[in-house]
Design goal:
Structural class: alpha+beta
Number of helices: 3
CATH architecture: Roll
Strand content: 35-45%
Radius of gyration: 14 Å
Low-confidence stretches: none
Length: 127
Amino acid sequence: MTPENIASVTKLMETYFEGLYQADSSMLRNVFHPQLSYVCATQGDELYLDLETYMARVEKRVPPAQKGEKRDDLILEMSFGGSRLAHVKARMKLMGRDYLDYLTLIRSGDEWRIVAKIFAYVPVEVE
């Protein structure tokens, strides 16, 4: 893992978090691979989508930013399996849920893209 790869993936993750917070499908299209596999692993809410179906759902959302939600996200782990494969474990609180994401990234040329988003969530506990 090179400092350049770490910086590139960190920048991609910032765009990912902000795109979700803004419910901005054009921003998210810049981080997702066209062949994205989107999988919700929450028991009772299993879901398997492709990129276009997922983007249509994002476009129908009221952005958390517009609702005044506080942005709360964090990269928990980042690992690399050579020059073209990366894994990011991240968490975020969004839309009343606490999400745990396992993201698989591939690099094509100089660009990293999320090719698989597998996640689970639980309701956010009110403090």
